[in-house]
Amino acid sequence: MAEAYVKQTIENGVGYIEFFHPAHNSLPSDILARLADTITEAGQNYKIKVIVLKSGGDRTFCAGASFNELISINDETTGKIFFSGFANVINAMRKCPKFIIGRVQGKTVGGGVGLASTTDYCMATKFASIKLSELNVGIGPFVVGPAVERKLGLSGMSQIAIDANSFYSAEWAKHKGLFTQVYETTEELDDAVKAFAENLCNYNTEAMAEMKSMFWQGTEDWDTLLAERAAISGRLVLSDFTKETLKRFK
């Protein structure tokens, strides 16, 4: 079985950050920490003008948080630390002074929807349906909620958060503003992402940094907000409902 990784490559001024996990690109704490650090470092690397966030594999962009870790949580402190993993990545993306282009090749669930929502410009294939499944296990999309709401609006976010059993199509996500373009194949997506990102490299990096700061105005409290949200999830994951539900997955 292939091993999980986070890797970065630089090509024509574009920093490609790719993550992978053999369990449908679900993300355990160590991979989330490496991802947050890699994004922060790329934001400080003068050789990189634009960042592309992508995942390995074919038909799943990200299945959310690692279920194996979720099942093993036995106290609130551990729970908060676990759910802070996605909060740290979201905040690293938010604070990064460079545009982050999302490349979503397939299904994305839970925390993965949060990552896609935090990119500054997101492109996908027609296979990139999305689902917020947290309510199924007795918690909610508390940590990713602010990022998803910022892209989909409160109505769109609440719709997929409440309808936790359903995948919503890539076209639905495009209509709501999450995806800018939807392509037939991964090859078409990759060509479009490469061309778009490399074209951005021709622009004034200072202007792009100022634009990004403008786009993210009003989120200055997210360090505190997402930590509070992580604590809520960390408490709820210990509920009798969630513990009973998770037993089915052991």
Structural notes for this entry:
The protein has 250 residues and is of the alpha/beta class. 50% of the residues lie in helices and 16% in strands. It has 10 helices and 9 strands. The strands form 2 sheets. It has a 6-stranded mixed β-sheet, with helices on both faces. It has a 3-stranded parallel β-sheet with strand order 4-6-8. α1 runs parallel beside α3 and α4 packs across α5. It is globular. The protein starts with a strand and ends with a helix. The mean pLDDT is 96.
Radius of gyration: 17 Å
Which blocks of ≥5 consecutive residues have pLDDT under 50?
none
What is the typical, i.e. mean, pLDDT? 96
Strand order of the largest sheet: 1-2-3-5-7-9
Distance between the termini: 20 Å
Task: Please tally the helical runs, counting DSSP H or I stretches of 4 or more residues.
Answer: 10
Describe the secondary structure blueprint for this structure.
Layout: E1 5-11, E2 14-20, H1 29-44, E3 50-55, E4 60-62, H2 67-72, H3 76-95, E5 100-104, E6 107-109, H4 111-118, E7 121-125, E8 130-131, H5 145-162, H6 170-176, E9 181-183, H7 186-200, H8 205-215, H9 222-236, H10 240-247
